[in-house]
Specification:
This protein is an alpha/beta fold. It is built from 21 helices and 21 strands.
């Protein structure tokens, strides 16, 4: 049953009114339902406050006491001495010196009762101190029970709102104002009701109650997402496409031309793909494989199967550089089999595609010429546009899927009649994220590296050790090797303290005059990018200075050295992708991460890169540190914001919701018994949901 109180405007809720409703809009809150979902960022246990005498140095605690003195200090600071316990000063052990720098806290004066929360430590004189703690003045009034002697919620604020005022408004909205939160699906046993969960999550009587409330509301979020996933899977499973007989065994001819055997993992995944292509429903498969695991060979296998059936295959890559790299490889493998390979990027839009082997591809009619056995098209986002017509599109391969949105995948799939889809990623996907973003896909994993791949030695170094690196680099170049030097910025920025590739290019031309340098970044026009990459592959460039534009799509086996400056500014998964540009040939490879992280956490992240080359472990660590939004981007991934659920820690809850959602969808895909569930799926602001259930 739908919730009819969800859209009640804030101004109509008692105690809020128009002025405070306007303030709440700055926090993105417009309705009563928004308030219910505005989760406390943390809680303070004000039931049993810890005496300062029992505190540990560096511990974050909440203390309550009387303001013993409030004297302005230097730089506009306010220094407060707060007595803990009795109102009268009994011992210096009961004093906390709270200091605020740069502003004077409002409302604090001698004699007032105050809560302060922060990290407590000893200063040089042995006194307990707190720097810029959060504070709240206690009042002996009728509403003090909302703030004192309880587990108090702490919310994000905006100018004009204090914790005390916002907490009172939230208490009014969640505890006193009547509202309904109907059960829009059959909830699992032993879970509290949604109505009770919303009340408890804001003002719990115990932390165990708070956990039960959060679990129920998190389960709701996961359940709705998994219903979307289950419907997508059902939609693909019930779709059928005609399977033509294969006219030629191109696959075997191609395998016979390779100078090396495929790995067991590659053969296993190819067999899984063949099984998909042997029955009616279109293939919908995700291929995960670490950098260098040989995903492209698996993709070529799938493309050849499409061509054998008289269909066209399209491969979409996120960058022009990667598209061109794929084109080089596929032309080498497929042209001897009389298969056309054409490139369609933003650079070729509005023109004929790249001319290949005596003919041009008509962008408005991709039917292959009579002289070729079939056609493969490689492109970027340009494949999504109307100019790219695909009358015979039977297979779509999407490389580096995390660089595309879910809707882009769906848009490309509409170019054909239920084409088979193979999406690939070298960024291993944490299992919870995979169950949400890619839950509608069957998953294959390449967990074996091809023989001959050289290990990459990775070391973390400080800026002071750069001179040693340049000496090492010159030695490697003298032995005939090539190298990459990566910077986070294209140009210098006053706002970002990091090196830029343009400035360092000019500096290194003077520092290393004997070295042939190349420059590559996203601001170069396509023709210049082509020229630089051609020179690099031809060994006319010794050291390529670049930004993360080379993160994917650069394959130069002779490049064995990589330096990444300001390494702390890159994510772990991105560092792993960049490192994957080396170690592709017969010589040992070396990656040096230079940075000056400002925290132990920053150094720990870089040390992970030093400890392992396992992309799956690195991805899990990156996920824990940065979360899903920063790894994939919620807009890019199609994942709606989660208010209560955690993809980092709620795997068991997600798995339970997945099984429950699949059961509900199997029973009745129309969701007729649960109209509130369908409404939830369509009103959650998630574009993927709208596509799936419309």
């Amino acid at each position: 049953m739908p919730d009819r109180t969800a859209s009640v405007p804030l101004a109509s809720i008692p105690g809020i009114g128009p002025q405070r409703a306007e303030l709440l809009t700055k926090l993105g809150l417009h309705t009563h339902d928004d308030l219910l979902h505005f989760v406390p960022r943390r809680y303070e246990d004000r039931r049993h406050l810890k005496p300062v005498s029992e505190a540990q140095d560096g511990q974050a605690i909440t203390v309550r006491g009387k303001v013993h003195a409030a004297k302005p200090g230097r730089w506009g600071a306010c220094k407060l001495d707060v007595t803990i316990g009795p109102a009268s000063l009994t011992s210096s052990q009961h004093l906390v010196h709270a200091r605020w720098f740069g502003f004077r806290p409002w409302g604090i004066k001698e004699g007032c009762d105050i809560f302060v929360y922060g990290r407590i430590s000893r200063d040089k004189k042995g006194r307990w101190t707190m720097s810029n703690p959060e504070y709240e003045i206690a009042h002996d009034d009728a509403e003090s029970f909302i703030h004192i002697d309880r587990i108090a919620p702490i919310y994000n604020l905006t100018d004009g709102l204090t914790q005390r005022v916002l907490r009172r408004l939230m208490f009014e909205a969640t505890q006193k104002t009547p509202f309904t939160a109907p059960e829009f699906y059959p909830a699992p046993e032993k879970m509290i009701s949604r109505q009770e969960a919303f009340r408890v999550i804001h003002f719990p009587d115990s932390f165990s109650d708070e956990n039960r409330a959060r679990q129920r509301l998190a389960y709701d979020e996961f359940f709705v997402l998994q219903c979307v996933v289950a419907l997508r899977r059902l939609s693909r499973a019930t779709a059928h496409r005609r399977r033509a007989d294969r006219a030629d065994d191109l696959h075997q001819r191609w395998l016979a031309s390779l100078p090396f055997p495929l790995t067991n993992a590659q053969r296993r995944v190819m067999a899984e793909i063949d099984a998909d292509l042997s029955h009616g429903p279109p293939m919908n498969r995700l291929l995960q494989g670490d950098v260098g695991a040989g995903k492209t060979f698996v993709a070529v296998h799938a493309m050849l199967r499409a061509v054998e059936a008289g269909e066209q295959a399209a491969l979409m890559a996120p960058t022009q550089i990667l598209a061109e790299q794929h084109a080089l490889n596929l032309r080498r493998w497929l042209e001897p089999l009389d298969i056309r390979v054409d490139v369609f990027t933003g650079h070729t839009r509005g023109k004929k595609a790249d001319r290949l082997q005596g003919g041009e591809l008509d962008l408005f009619n991709t039917r292959p010429k009579a002289k070729s056995l079939g056609s493969v098209v490689i492109g970027t986002h340009a494949l999504l546009y109307d100019r790219y017509a695909a009358n015979q599109l039977g297979l779509i391969v999407i490389d580096e899927q995390h660089k595309f949105g879910v809707l882009q995948r769906l848009a490309l799939s509409r170019k054909g009649q239920n084409p088979d889809i193979l999406v690939m990623t070298a960024t291993p996907i944490p299992r919870t994220l995979g169950m949400t973003l890619y839950g509608d896909l069957d998953v294959s994993v390449l967990d074996e590296m091809p023989p001959g791949r050289q290990p990459i030695v990775t070391k973390c170094r400080s800026v002071k050790e750069l001179d040693k690196f340049w000496a090492f680099l010159l030695k490697q170049i003298g032995e005939g090797r090539q190298a990459y030097v990566i910077y986070p910025l294209v140009e210098e920025s006053e706002k970002v303290d990091a090196k830029s590739v343009k400035v360092e290019f000019e500096r290194l031309k003077k520092l290393l005059p004997q070295v042939r340098l190349g420059l590559l970044h996203g601001q170069l026009d396509p023709a210049e990018k082509d020229r630089v990459m051609t020179a690099l592959r031809a060994r006319e460039i010794d050291v390529l200075l670049a930004t993360s534009v080379i993160e994917v799509g650069v394959d130069v086996p002779n490049a064995t050295v990589m330096l990444i400056e300001n390494a702390e500014r890159f994510g772990l998964a991105q560092l792993h992708q960049l490192r994957g540009r080396i170690g592709r040939g017969e010589h040992p490879s070396y990656c040096v991460l230079v940075g000056e992280p400002r925290s132990l956490e920053g150094w720990r992240r870089l040390k992970i890169m030093e400890e392992t080359t396992d992309g799956f472990r690195i991805a899990e660590e990156d996920f824990k540190i940065r979360g899903p939004g920063n790894i994939f981007g919620t807009e890019q991934s199609g994942l709606p914001p989660l208010h209560f659920a955690s993809l980092e820690s709620d795997y068991d809850l997600l798995a339970q919701a997945r099984n429950h959602a699949a059961q509900i969808i199997r029973q009745d895909p129309t969701l007729a018994p649960w109209p509130g569930l369908r409404e939830k799926m369509q009103s959650g602001g998630n574009a993927v949901s709208l596509v799936a259930v419309s």
